[in-house]
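Q: I have 91 residues here and want to know how they pack in 3D. Can you give me a structure?
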Amino acid sequence: MSDQNLKDPKHPSGPIQVKNLIIKVDRGLCIGTTQCVDVAVKTFTLDNEGVSSILNTAEQEEEKLILEAAHGCPMNAISITDKDGKPIYPK
């Protein structure tokens, strides 16, 4: 995976603002199941370490798919807040 495909190569797993959402992947919890990648293909990819990272195409994704990806993570490694810091998932 090339760093140029990541929204923020220095912080590949966030926190990163995408539209009205702040997305963060806990790199310690992520086990690389690809559940998020399968649901939100424009937002998530696995990096060279097999950990979910946020793509620079995330802005093109529907917010509902990003939320669905977070809900589907078996390790609950994805957290999402609104732009004011209020938790959306998990609550």
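Q: Anything worth noting?
A: The two ends are 32 Å apart (CA to CA). Residues 3-84 form a domain with the Alpha-Beta Plaits fold (CATH 3.30.70.20).
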